[in-house]
Structures are given as C-alpha cells and as structure tokens.
Design brief:
The protein is mainly beta. The protein has helices spanning about 20-25, 280-295, 300-305, 310-315; strands at about 30, 35, 40, 45-50, 60-65, 85, 190, 200-205, 210-215, 225-230, 240-245, 250-255, 265-270, 275, 320-335, 345, 355, 365-370, 375-385. A hairpin with an 8-residue loop joins strand 7 (about 190) and strand 8.
C-alpha cells in the first residue's frame, strides 16, 4: 500500500483467470480483509465492480480519479473527467507513463462529445480540445498550484533513433499559439534542433507574426513577384504576359500594347518563389472569404469551399503576381527579328509580348533572353531586369 492506494489480483481458488461470464451474470462485489497485526479485519462497505473490456493498470504512486482536483483554475470551467490517470512516480529507471495504448490501428482515439468548438460562449476550437497537455488540467492528489507550472509536451520514443512524428488533416491544420492570457503577452512558436538552447534555435514565429529562419529559405519557384492590382479586371491575363504600369490608376498594372514602353514593369509570374504585397495573413483570409461570398458560397461550409470553383484571381483580391526579379517564361515575338540568348527584350506592339531591343532607351528594357526564338511567337525563359 502506498498513499492509500493498493492493487490486488483477482482469480479463482488457484488464481486462475475469472471467466467473463461470472461477472456478467449479476452484480459483483469486492470484499477486502486486512491484517492489522492483531487479526484480520473486514473493510466496509463491499465495493461493487463490473466486467470491462479493458483493464487500467497503474504503476506504484499513480492514481485514477474522476474529477479535476483544481477545477477552479482551469480554463474550461473544470468539467469532470471521465477517466484521469496520473503518475507521480519520478524514479530515474521508470518513465512513468500515465497511459500506454497499443493497437494495430489507432493506439489512442480521443474525441470530445460536443465537437462544436465551444465549451460555452467562446466559439473557438482551442476552447474545446480533444486532448489537453500540461498546465493545470490534471492535478495529482495533494498537488499544489506551484507544482503546475509546466508545459504540455508531445514527444516520440526517445530510445528509438528513427522515431518520427506525423500530423495529418483532411482539411485545415491549425495551430493556436496562445490562449487569452492577460499575464503573458509574448506567445511564440519555436523550432529547435537538439536540446532547448538558443544556439539550437532554427525557426521562430514571434508575437507580431515575424518569421525568422536559421538557414536558407527555398521553394519551387524561381522569381520574386509583387502582387499588384490590375487596371481592367475583365482582361484575361495569362502567365508570361508582359505588363506595364497603369496610366489610369495608382499601384496597378495593365497589359503592354505598344513597343518600347517606358512604363514596363515585369511579367505575369508562372510560379513565384516569393510573393510580396499579399497583405497580412488575416487580410488574405478576409479577401478569400469575400470572394467566396461574392460567388454565393458560405465560407464556413467546408464541403462547399472544398468543391468551389473560385479562381485564384478572385481569391487574391483581383490581383496578379508580377515578377520583378528572377527567371520567368515570357511571351515573345519576332516583331523586331529573331531573338538570341543574351538579347535585351522590350515591349512589342503585340499585346503582352516582348521583342528584341537593338538600341534600347532608358527604362524600356524588361529583361534579358535566356532562350531563343527564330520566328513567329512563343515563350522563352527571361531574366527579369527592368532598366
């Protein structure tokens, strides 16, 4: 016995397993005697128990409780737990697992009953979690508030060299950095390579949304683009179109239509590696919701959004990605003769096309050809270098 907790083996006269039918035939009770040193005494009352499909096995120092011992301190109002296993065994040779679950399918399946993203008034998924880690949610008997200041941790098996971790979602995968905690204003997301030490910090997303990476950022794209509004949203813009600064409105572009234009700015990017001018993440989500609503789609209807046929142009707030540096495919024409690798390119009279520039004026060059075109029109790779 330890701290009032004891375990007992149940069996027949020779400790053979009890047949399941024995317990299923009617109410069963556990009667306990103990030797106090002056003879056996019976504990009262007898305790009823039932046959269950799974057994809960506890290591010494652990407890099973059916309620939160610090209900007044938890953010969900302290609703009672159906099953809570707490392990207080801190021996070095005992990992102290509260629950070990193994299965050929899901080792542990947890789902709250409501599942509506709402404990009460707040309509937010982080207020209705399936699993709560750390904090003051599960307190051991006799534990004080000062023992509760710890973080929730998910880890793979430390003794396995190649133990990986996977997260999968059929819809959005969302991470909330912080509860509404008035005592802490600096929630951050950090990724370390190795022990918890600033020298091992590889990624940091701070409270202002600034992202810092220790290393090289790379993507499948090949150019730097700026997301810019178009002068005429009715025009069917295509990847590779040569674009000029709008003569009608500020911070907008239009399709090039005249040769040697000094308003040339760049090319409609096929696959940018980095895009500026997209706005904050919240602004992007707001624009996307507005585009869906304009198309008659409820942005909160996940099935409708998944099957929606809303163009990226609309989701981007009727803006396009204009490559202003890097290498991109561009529409070209032989309007000023064949194009060879290394030729400077400028706007042509053919809408959205570039042509060879023999004696360029300042401000008319859009880039340098990295491919060739002998005749007609088509596409070549171009290094964007407006000058």
């Amino acid at each position: 016995m330890h701290n009032g907790i004891f375990s007992v083996a149940l069996g027949g006269e020779d400790m053979e397993p009890i047949e399941a039918g024995t317990l299923a035939s009617g109410p069963s009770y556990l009667r306990v005697w103990f030797d106090s040193g002056s003879g056996f005494q019976q504990l009262t009352p007898d305790q009823p128990f039932h046959a269950v499909p799974y057994a809960h096995t506890l290591v010494p120092g652990s407890a099973v409780i059916g309620e939160r011992r610090d209900a007044d301190n938890v953010t969900d109002g302290g609703f009672p737990a159906v099953f809570a296993a707490i392990n207080r065994n801190d021996a070095d040779d005992d990992p102290g697992f509260g629950i070990i679950a193994q299965s050929s399918n899901a080792g542990l399946y947890v789902d709250n009953l409501r599942g509506d993203g709402n404990f009460g008034p707040p309509e937010s998924p982080e207020q209705n979690p399936d699993i709560i880690l750390g904090g003051r949610y599960l307190s051991a008997p006799g534990q004080t508030d000062t023992d509760n200041q710890h973080a929730g941790v998910i880890a793979t098996e430390p003794s396995e060299s190649f133990s990986g971790m996977f997260l999968r979602s059929n819809y959005r995968l969302e991470l909330f950095k912080s509860y509404s905690n008035p005592n802490w204003s600096l929630p951050e997301l950090r990724v370390y390579h190795g022990p918890l030490d600033n020298d091992n910090l590889q990624l940091r997303l701070d409270n202002e949304g600034n992202l810092s990476i220790e290393g090289v950022y790379s993507s499948g794209g090949a150019d730097f683009a700026e997301r810019i509004a178009v002068e005429d949203p009715q025009v069917d813009y295509e990847v590779g179109d040569v674009l000029v600064i709008s003569a009608e409105q500020d911070r907008a572009v239009a399709l090039s239509t005249e040769p040697n234009s000094t308003r040339v700015i760049g090319v409609y990017s096929a696959n940018p590696g980095f895009v500026g001018g997209t706005g904050t993440a919240s602004e992007q989500v707001r624009r996307e919701r507005e585009a869906l609503e304009s198309a008659g789609i409820d942005p909160d209807d996940e099935a409708a959004v998944a099957s929606a046929r809303v163009t990226q142009f609309s989701l981007n707030g009727r803006k396009i990605d204009v490559a202003i540096a890097g290498i991109v495919p561009v529409k070209v024409t032989d309007e000023n003769g064949p194009i060879a690798r290394g030729d400077l390119l400028t706007t042509a009279s053919t809408p959205g096309h570039a042509m060879r520039s023999d004696n360029p004026q300042v401000g008319t060059v859009v880039g340098k050809a990295m491919g060739e075109l002998n005749e007609g029109s088509g596409y070549v790779e171009m290094f964007v270098m407006a000058q």
